[in-house]
Amino acid sequence: MTTPETGCSTTAAGQALLVRLDRLEPGRPHRRLMFQGGLGYTFDSFDGALMGYALSAVIVIWGITAGTAGWLLSSIFFGYLVGALGAGLLADRFGRRRLMMCALLVFCVFSLLMATSSGTAELFLWRALSGVGIGAETTLIAPYISEFLPARHRGRFVARTVGFLALGYVLAGIAAPLVISPHPETGWRIAAVLAAAPVLLLLWWRKNLPESPRYLIARGRIDEAAHVVEKFERESAVAGHQAAPADEDTPTSGAAARPAAPRERNILGQLAALWQGRTARTTLVLWVLWFILTGVNYGFTSWMPAMLVAAKGFTITKSFVFALVTALAQIPGYYVASALIERMERKWLIAAYATGATLAALGVALAEGQAALLVSSAFLAAFTNGSAAVYYAYTAELYPTAIRTTGMGAASAVGRIGAIAAPITIGYLYQSVGFTNVFLALVGALAVAVAVIVAFGEKTAGRSLEQLEGTTA
Predict the structure, then answer these.
(1) How far are the Cα atoms of 63, 74, 84, 382 from residue 449, in angstroms, in the given order?
(2) What is the pLDDT of residue 254?
(3) What pLDDT is recorded for position 241?
(4) Domains plus CATH for the chain?
(5) 357: closest CA among 287, 293, 402, 411?
(6) Which pLDDT value is given to residue 312?
(7) What is the pLDDT of residues 151-208, one digit of tens each?
(8) Which residue from 34, 397, 425, 439 has the fewest beta carbons nearer than 10 Å?
(9) Any residues with CB less than 8 A from the CB of 36 and at least 6 apart, and which?
(10) pTM score, whole prediction
(11) Ranges in the chain, pLDDT < 70
(12) HSE of 102 in the Cβ direction (CA atoms, 13 Å)?
């Protein structure tokens, strides 16, 4: 039976751990987490991009119509939606680490089965089921890592982790001409196997991932949280009392140091909590951002190779090379964002990137030559993908620990709805209004995203997760 005295001491112990965690200078264990989480994003984007190229080849080889092709290109996002929402809800109840491991296993199994597909329906099914694993994985990495980091470094570390997505796109751009182009009929199947292989290594490597100490404290598991914090202090070569002292920019008292009280909610209660008090406005803003920015990004990525072949007369190989150049442009997009994220308020940085993407989409729509098309596409890829480095970190900051992965999962799921709708819509729009008008439609959607974040976005930079929890309650 828990006594009042025990409850107070537990709260004090959790409070002390949060202070130590927020004062600890990032060191080797934080960098290791960033690298492990980053490789997860790398393999996820590698699969998404490589299979986008593979499906573009399948569309041509199998003579699939544009409308049906849109559904096939969207197949993975149906799985993303289920995986993101399910993992977010479950990770707030059962822990971040366990769900991340399960997600990798699901992805591996169904990616391998995808290589055996003999028809469009079967390919759609296996691709959607593999997307469940990827959707869960990408949803959990950012909030998981953010819960280990102090306020003054959180945005930069999370942005750099998300920036590993660019590496996967580049590797896919290199692999596609080598694996798919020489023999597209069998090359796309080899690509499916290749996309799954690196995740097996990551699954083994993550056996020793720690559970989030903030999650453990929120669940009342203070001893386990203390073990994680002490391990991080040892590996960073400091004792708890030697961690960086608090200063005016590092709030560690009051709301900043108050652990969330353990509280059981059912699944409907977790979702309902996203729409209570000021959190409702946060949820609405994030859902609009994720729907538009994710939809534009994946709609562009999924359709660009196929549209270059159909509308611009490119060969499959040339369209892959074109896509590789745009993938390379993502790297500066991500890393400029990671350099600016602690210098600018997050909402203004998202607005700046969305504005850049709007102008780039307009450039694609109006481009008359291949050089102008390439430059505009490169900027569009840089801005849409670079914005992800900010809005992933931003979303993970805005929800309290007890519903953080629920909030992240719901926002990511809404983003996947955008990613489902965009390729399907583009498929039908392209048939009826053509290449230019497709990108003019993207311009309008991006302009809405800019207006929403400027008018309603919250400020988060330099504030601890516990302090933000107090302001969004």
Answers:
(1) 36, 22, 21, 17
(2) 40
(3) 46
(4) 9-238+267-471 (1.20.1250.20)
(5) 293
(6) 61
(7) 778 888 888 898 888 888 888 888 888 888 888 888 889 998 988 887 777 777 777 7
(8) 425
(9) 202, 205, 206, 209
(10) 0.74
(11) 1-10, 237-266, 301-319, 431, 434-435, 461-473
(12) 16
